[in-house]
Amino acid sequence: MLKLLLSLYLAVFTSIVVINQLNELIWQQWAVSEPDELRHAQSVAQTLQTSVSPSSLPAESENLKVLQIDDIAWLPEQTSLLRQGQVLTSYNSQGHALLTFAIANSDKLIQLGPFAPATSAADKRWALKLFSYAILAFLLMLWIRPLWLDLLQLKHITASLTQGQLPSATRRSRFSAIATLTEQIRALAAQVARLIENQKLLVNAVSHDLRTPLARLKFALAMLPKESQQQAQAMAEDVTEMEQLIAEMLAYARLEFELEELTMSDVDLNEVIEQQVSKLGKLTEKAIHFQAGGNAVNVTGNNHYLSRALQNLIQNADKYGYSQISVSLQCHNEQASIIVEDDGNGIAKEQWQSIFVPFSRLDESRSKNGGGYGLGLAIVRKIAQWHHGECEVGEASLGGAKFTLTLPLKR
User: Fold this and answer.
1) What are the backbone angles phi and psi of residue 239, rounded to the nearest 5°?
2) Beta strand pairing status for 335-342 and 298-301?
3) Residue 343 contacts by C-beta under 8 Å, 6 or more apart in sequence?
4) Strands 287-290 and 324-332: what pairing?
5) At a CB cut-off of 8 Å and minimum separation 6, what does 383 contact?
6) Quick count: other Cβ atoms within 10 Å of Cβ 7?
7) Closest CA to 175 of 136, 149, 155
8) 50-54, 154-158, 314-318: which has the highest mean pLDDT?
9) What backbone phi and psi angles, to 5 degrees, belong to 126?
10) Where are the domains of the chain?
11) For 262-408, which CATH class?
12) pTM, whole model, 2 decimals?
């Protein structure tokens, strides 16, 4: 931070010094040194005033007149300036300048003119200001460019990391104030990318190497003699539980890698809900209530994963509800909300966020004995986030838990 501040201060200080020097040089060469009729006449009047006397008056001409001081009704201030020997500048009705001065030891005046007024320097000042601003912008761009290149590198690093790829090497800028930070983030990104790759390898190993011996073990248990069936049945149940746990873990792990492979399309939420209610209604004795709407409610998403999220919510309500499950669909503020409620014991308010953490189990009623592994709701929230939505929990009107899956409507 100190390096960044010092480099910015140095850049601004250098820019101000350069601009001031250029402005002074340009103003002297362009504005002050430019020929000007009135300025030249003032110099002539000052020179002439020192050389004339009452005895040697110059001859009158079109631009030179000899007057008495009383010939013109001067203002008291003007009269005082003339008697002090100063050159008085006045203007006629056409706006031209008249230069008047008094002859020493005399009441006579010499008046020069008329002369065209001095040209306004306002346009030149504005042009010079715009030039100064352009110079300042150019110098600041020179300072910002290395910083901008490093920020683009950070954007590239994060984009590569989001896709699970190792960031490609780029040339380091020696003049950037955040070059060290960029290198540290690149090293961190490389480490994270390696961890992601290791996780992929672990998922593949679990999928192939662990399931195979479980399948052999399950087959061996089935081949045991009848007198060992009771013990074999208990072991088979443990094997089945391990298979289900592995399936859930693999499903959650794959969610981290399939984002860029998702196929998005128009999905009618009414159809998705009707399919899941019809499918799961055959597997439970609890009543599942859903009132389908007349119009299609379309979102942009993946039909398979949205169905999986809704399936997890309904199965969760089936596990912990007593007799009935309510599913509803609401639309508000360009968002669609799928609401799943049950009539179970509900969830304490202080535990509403914990239930979405992978492998979290809140109490005995939500332990693995009830069939849960703490991954179902984590999968629901991950799918919701994929679709730029959210999943929240609250209190149901039936007395149990209420889960709300919110998704943006198709625009």
Assistant:
1) -65, -40
2) unpaired
3) 321, 322, 323, 324, 396, 398, 399, 400
4) parallel
5) 255, 305, 306, 308, 309
6) 17
7) 149
8) 314-318
9) -65, -40
10) 2-115, 262-408
11) alpha beta
12) 0.53
Please list, in sequence order, all residues whose beta carbon lies within 8 angstroms of the beta carbon of residue 149, skipping any fewer than 6 positions away.
173, 176
- Tokens coding 177: 């104030």
pLDDT grade, residue 1 (50/70/90)? low
CB atoms within 10 A of CB 395: 14
Nearest by Cα to 396 from 357, 331, 347: 347
Alpha helices in 121-224 (DSSP H): 122-162, 179-205, 211-222
Q: How far is 317 from 400, CA to CA, in rounded Å?
A: 9
Distance between start and end Cα atoms, the chain? 43
Q: Which two tokens stand for residue 95?
A: 């706006």
Q: Where are the beta strands (DSSP E) in 296-347?
A: 298-301, 324-332, 335-342
Rounded Cα distance between 24 and 17, Å, is 11
Nearest to 316 by CA among 251, 266, 348, 361: 361
